[in-house]
Amino acid sequence: MVVSLVLLFITCFSLSFVEDRLSDREKKILYVLFGIAMIMIAGMREVGSTPDSETYEDMYYSKEDSISMMLTEPSFGFITDILQSMSLGINALFFVYAILAVPIQLSALWRFSRIPLLMLTVYLSYYYMIHDMVQIRCAVASGLFLWAIYFYVERKKLFSLLFILTGILFHYSAIAGLVIFFLGNGFPRWQRYLLYAIVPVGLVVYVTNFDIFSIVPDELGGLKLMKYRTMREKGIEDELAGWKLGSNLLIWMNIVLYYACIYYHDHLVKHFKYTSVAIKLQGVGFCFLFFVNALSMVVGNRMCDYFSVASVLLWTASVYAFTPIIIGKIVNNAISAVRFVTSVLAYGLALMFM
C-alpha cells in the first residue's frame, strides 16, 4: 500500500510541473486515471494497515456491540446491511466509500482551479490519507463540503445547502458546515483582526484544558457531549484521536499558511476568488481544534480535519504569491512532499503503537 501511495504521489507531483503544457482533455484523462488508482488503493488496503481500519471492521461485523456505532449515522448501517446480505467482507465497505468519495472530491477540485494537478498533489499529500484511508465516512462528507464551498462562492447558496445536508447523511459532523452561511464572501477589517486572534487565544484555551462545553444543558446536546467525555475517561478515544498539537507538524504548517494568506489576502483573492471563504473556514477548523480539545480530542481533531479541507484551496492560492508562478509551484510542491512524507511516517508510527 505504501509503495502504491508513493508512486501515486510522485506521478501527480511530477505532472503538476508540466500541466500548463497539457490540454484540458489530457488533464481530464489523467484525473480519471488518478481517481481509479485512488479508489483501488483505498478499497484494497488490508485491515490494520491504516488507523481506524480495525475499528471499522469491528463496527462492520459487530454493530450491536460497538460503542462507536452509537455515534454513527444510519447510512453506515444501511450500507453495511446491504453488503452483509451479499456476504461481502470489510473490503467491500472500503470500496463503496471510496467509490462514493473519490469522484466527488476530484470533480470538486477540478472546478476550483486552473492548475488541477497541483491541487490534487496537495490533496494527495495528506487529505487523501486522512479521509479516504482513515475517516471514510468523513471522506464523502468533506468531498460534498468542497462542492458546498464552490457553490457558496459562486452565489448558488441553495446548491451549497443541499450538498451540506447530503453530507450529514454520511457524517453528522457535516452539520457544522452550515456555518459557511454566516461567514460571507467579504473580508472586512474586523474579520481580519478576529481571524488573527483565533490561534493565540485558542492556544491559551488548549493549554489550560478549559472545557467551554461544560455549561451546555442536556436539552441542547449535553447527553451527546457526555458520551464523548465518557469515551475520553475510559481511554477509548486515545486510539482514535490522532497526534497531539505539540507534535503535529501538519497543523503548524497550516497555521503558517493561514497567517500568510490573511496577510496577502488582497493579492491572492485577485487570482483565486475562493481565498476569503477558505481562510475563514480554516479559522473555524482551528476553533474546533483548540476550543473542543478539553471535551474530546477526537471531536476537536476530526472537525478540524473536516474544515481544514479548505487548506487545499489555500495552498493552491499561495502559488499566486510568487512571480513567476513556477517558483510558487516549486515551493508548494516541496511543502507537499514534506507533508506527504510526514503523513506516511506519522501513520506508520501510529500503527506501531496501536
The percentage of residues in β strands lies in under 5%
Structural class determined from secondary elements? mainly alpha
Could you give the distance between the termini?
18 Å
Q: Using DSSP, what is the number of strands?
A: 0
Order of helices and strands: HHHHHHHHHHHHHHHHH
Low-confidence stretches: none
Helix count, DSSP H or I runs of 4 or more residues: 17
What is the molecular shape? globular
Report on the architecture of this protein:
The protein is an all-alpha fold. It has 17 helices and no strands. Helix 2 (24-44) runs antiparallel to helix 5 and helix 12 (249-263) packs across helix 16 (311-318). The two termini are 18 Å apart.
What is the compact description of this entry?
It is built from 17 helices and no strands. It has helices at 2-16, 24-44, 53-61, 74-85, 90-112, 116-125, 127-132, 136-153, 157-168, 189-208, 222-233, 249-263, 265-271, 275-291, 297-307, 311-318, 325-352. With 354 residues, the protein is mainly α.
How is the secondary structure organized here?
Layout: H1 2-16, H2 24-44, H3 53-61, H4 74-85, H5 90-112, H6 116-125, H7 127-132, H8 136-153, H9 157-168, H10 189-208, H11 222-233, H12 249-263, H13 265-271, H14 275-291, H15 297-307, H16 311-318, H17 325-352
Helix pairs in contact: 1-2, 1-6, 1-17, 2-5, 5-8, 6-16, 6-17, 8-9, 10-14, 12-16, 14-15, 14-16
